[in-house]
Design goal:
Distance between the termini: 72 Å
Strand content: 15-25%
Radius of gyration: 22 Å
Number of strands: 23
Shape: globular
Length: 515
């Protein structure tokens, strides 16, 4: 009888920590989950306390082994995935973190981003890049000529953190400062402080990485943000040996064989390998990603081109648009009593034929691609005495779908790719009404996969491929199949409905602008 093998997959998400054991059939045979405790000590703040986070990760690993008591010996590889852009700083000599994690949706550096965007330095950078682009036709400098800063970029938030504490720069000068997003810090902790590294997918989400050269960007670090490159982690392939788990932690040792960003992991797990293949993850936020093959598409309109994964000589790219809090909007709708649960909101929405003129703009954290207005407000408009809870719930779901449509059409316009059917995952993808309305708006089939945990699965597939658990990626990806397909239904009313929703968007914009 052949030896049973499995992968321990860790997903440090924006809402939950999930730890799973994935077998050779790409099935999750055990999973543990804990809700992440997000701190907000001041307006705009979103932080994680490192010691508390580590404690939750450790207890989640222990829990999944307690659920699957004979699986510890089967684990041959470990995979790390999760939220991108959430970072901290720590001392190299003793591993002590210097501040809480600053999360990817923290907006306290908004003023720093605004002043950087209006600086003479950035204007000169744009002008020089445009000139070089004109002479060379370089896509790299086309992207540089359009560069715009936002609080979603690690570069902005890290520069803001460094500007507030001279001590950090002194530590960097003494070669005693490490920077890392959650995956880098977790790798450091799991290997007992032996490995300070990340992969290209995580790095490309920081704003400090040059996707054309595949290295940390000296221009971004030194010229625009004055960030010491010495504090940044080593860059490695997404699939390969990163280091060995410290045996004292969990009673076993295995190589960390995959490190990849959550959306990239999902893209891989869903088998989106060819240019034009498309997926949308409906979780805390909504993330629309399209594979662009070996081409890094110059970004604009709030979209981001990133490395999907790097394996040996292969560098795969993707382009992404996101809305940071669409999941939160639906949770809010449940909290105020418009539906009893996320799943039940589908039935509530379908209990009425339309929203009766109510429109919802999902913007608790502003509006991202392609609207790009951090000062926009969440908006519910068009209520009358006849408006019911069902109308409100349906309006929330339709508003989320309209944002998805905008992101897809912006990606299509920017890449000029022929986009294929939409594959979806994440907790909100269980909402049948939302998935059907998305299919109707986009006029393309929407495939919901047989597991909502494709981030965990995608990272596990990469780790397993690294140690020979599967023959190749095509074989591995066939293990993840479609659970249900939503077919588009034509509706002439949807275009008029969308245009009316756009009027609501215009009213929501610049609401929180500073005088």
């Amino acid at each position: 009888m052949s030896e049973t093998k499995s992968v321990l997959s860790l997903d440090i998400g924006s809402t939950n920590i999930k730890v799973a054991i994935v077998n050779e059939k790409a099935e999750i045979i055990g999973i543990a989950s804990q809700k992440i405790e997000i701190l907000s000590p001041e307006v705009g703040a979103a932080e994680l306390e490192p010691d508390r986070l580590w404690s939750q990760i450790v207890s989640s690993v222990q829990e999944v082994f307690s659920k699957c008591p004979n699986s510890r010996e089967t684990v041959k590889s470990v995979a790390i995935t999760g939220q991108r852009g959430t970072f901290t700083l720590w001392k190299k000599d003793n591993g002590k973190t210097l501040h809480n994690f600053v999360m990817w949706n923290d907006t306290r550096s908004e003023q720093y981003a605004t002043s950087s965007n209006s600086s003479m330095l950035l204007k000169a950078f744009h002008g020089a890049s445009a000139c070089i682009r004109g002479f060379t036709g370089s896509e790299r400098f086309k992207m540089a000529s359009r560069l715009k800063f936002s609080t979603q970029q690690v570069a902005v938030r890290l520069a803001w953190v460094l500007s507030r504490s001279p001590e950090y720069r002194q530590l960097a000068s003494a070669n005693n400062l490490c920077f890392g997003c959650i995956e880098t810090w977790l790798l450091w902790k799991l290997t007992g402080g032996k490995v300070h590294a990340t992969d290209h997918s995580f790095a490309s989400a920081t704003g400090l990485y040059d996707p054309f050269l595949g290295t940390w960007s000296g221009l971004m670090c030194r010229l625009l943000f004055d960030i010491p490159i010495s504090i940044l982690p080593e860059l490695r392939d997404s699939s390969g040996t990163f280091g060995m788990i410290d045996e004292d932690l969990f009673g076993f040792s295995a190589p960390v064989s995959a490190v990849i960003g959550d959306q990239q992991s999902s893209l891989f797990g869903l088998g989106c390998f060819r240019a034009g293949e498309l997926k949308c993850s409906f979780g805390t936020g909504t993330f629309m990603c399209a594979a662009t093959g070996d081409r890094c598409v110059p970004f604009q309109n709030g979209l981001y081109s990133m490395v999907a994964w790097k394996i040996g000589n292969e560098v795969a790219y993707m382009i992404e648009g996101n809305e940071s809090d669409t999941g939160l909007c639906l949770e809010w709708a449940v909290a105020v009593g418009w539906a009893d649960s996320l799943e039940q909101s589908s039935d509530v929405a379908q209990s009425v034929p339309d929203t009766n003129g109510v429109f919802f703009v999902p913007g608790f954290g502003g509006l991202h691609a392609p609207i790009c207005d951090d000062s926009a407000a969440c908006l519910m408009i068009g209520m009358t005495p006849q408006s019911t809870k069902a109308h409100m719930a349906r309006a929330v779901l339709e508003g989320i779908a309209f944002r998805v449509m905008e992101m897809l059409y912006t990606i299509q316009d920017q890449t000029k790719l022929t986009l294929r059917d939409l594959t979806v995952d994440g907790g909100m993808s269980k909402n049948d009404f939302l998935m059907q309305f998305v299919a109707d708006l986009l006029q393309r089939k929407v495939h919901r996969m047989n597991t909502p945990e494709t981030c965990l699965i995608g990272a596990a597939l990469l780790a397993g491929l690294s140690i020979g658990l599967w023959k190749d990626r095509e074989t591995a990806s066939k293990l993840v199949t479609s659970e249900k397909t939503f077919y588009p239904q034509p509706s002439a009313a949807n275009e008029a409905k969308y245009q009316r929703w756009r009027e609501a968007v215009e009213r929501s914009k610049l609401w929180y602008r500073k005088a």
